[in-house]
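FORM 7B: Structural annotation worksheet

SECTION A. Query
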Amino acid sequence: MPSPRVRVVRPYLDEASEALGETIHMGRLDGRDVAYLATRESHEYLRTISRVGRRLPAHAGALGKALLAERPDGELPRGPYEGLTPNSHTTQETILADLAEVRARGYSIDREEGVLGIAGFGFALRYDSPAQDAISCSVPVVRLTPEHVERIVAVMREIRAKVEATVPSGGGAVHWR
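SECTION B. Predicted structure
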């Protein structure tokens, strides 16, 4: 049975999927990993395939990087850091530099770090402090144009704002797992 927050967020995932035509995810930080809680698949022939329950090391994907950036650098899990692709960050120095960019930009970018051929854009949901959940948009890199990136970021920021305005703040207590 999904958590109450997943049920509340699902319609917004549908809205993002319809607006962008890409695969949209919701995930939760769980130790060193992100667990996928909900997914809306793209209807495009070439698309990202994912599934609820999938786990990915937090440092190697858009969802996890968005969530790690919400925490102080000192809370980054210690290595070793698994390299899922040749593009994965596998040292603390490169991960910390990437997280600094995420904080400055306001969202994470996964440049084929978790899966070759796929880019992801992650947005922490700040109804908890620090954030436990995030949403992301995954796109085959062959479809990424500067205009599409701009649209993805604009739509996902709007979806994040709608979710944060709807979901009650938990005050940091995550008791509904």
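SECTION C. Observations
Residues 55 and 172 are 23 Å apart (CA to CA). Residues 171-177 have pLDDT under 50 and may be disordered.

SECTION D. Sign-off
Analyst initials: ____
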